[in-house]
Design brief:
CATH class: Alpha Beta
Strand content: 25-35%
Radius of gyration: 14 Å
Number of domains: 1
Order of helices and strands: EHEHEEHHEEEH
Shape: globular
Number of strands: 7
Helix content: 25-40%
Distance between the termini: 15 Å
Number of helices: 5
Structural class: alpha/beta
Length: 156
């Protein structure tokens, strides 16, 4: 597990960008983002997308549930499952098809998909720590371990 303390939005965006740069291209990667409301999950995703080269706005998918992005030949799905009442609803979102692609899936509130979602490659937990955020990155696959290691090296 990698533990990081980030202070401020710029540091949160940089962490997201470092995470994006650490992801191997052309693979399906599942990254769970966990934390209370306002912990900075969407800010981290904005940094991730900008780290890949996205220049447009990044909308929170709180109401749409999923926002797809095509960036430099990389497909990224940003999902927010906060409003999902039953994990079976994920079938209607097309999640099975998304999981079959060589895409990166960034999933906020993954516990709402418990029992339906496969295991994550990486689990990122964000917690309030005064005016900073404590970020714990836990790998659950070989790809996840490589990503976590590269992020830790980049931030040292």
């Amino acid at each position: 597990m990698t533990d990081i303390c980030v202070k401020g939005e710029a540091a949160q965006l940089e962490l997201g960008a470092a995470l994006a740069r650490a992801c191997p291209p052309g693979r399906r990667l599942l990254i769970f983002l966990d934390g209370d409301l306002g912990a900075g999950k969407t800010t981290l995703v904005r940094g991730f997308l900008q780290g890949l080269g996205h220049e447009g706005s990044v909308k929170s998918p709180t109401y749409t549930l999923v926002e797809p992005y095509d960036i430099a030949g990389c497909r990224v799905y940003h999902l927010d499952l906060y409003r999902v009442a039953d994990p079976g609803e994920l079938e209607y979102l097309g999640l099975r098809e998304m999981l079959a692609e060589p895409a990166i899936l960034l999933i906020e509130w993954p516990q709402q998909g418990a029992g339906w979602l496969p295991n994550a490659d990486l689990h990122v937990r964000l917690e309030h720590a005064g005016d900073a955020r404590h970020v714990a990155i836990c790998a659950h696959s070989a790809d996840g371990e490589a990503i976590a290691s590269r992020v830790a090296e980049h931030l040292q």
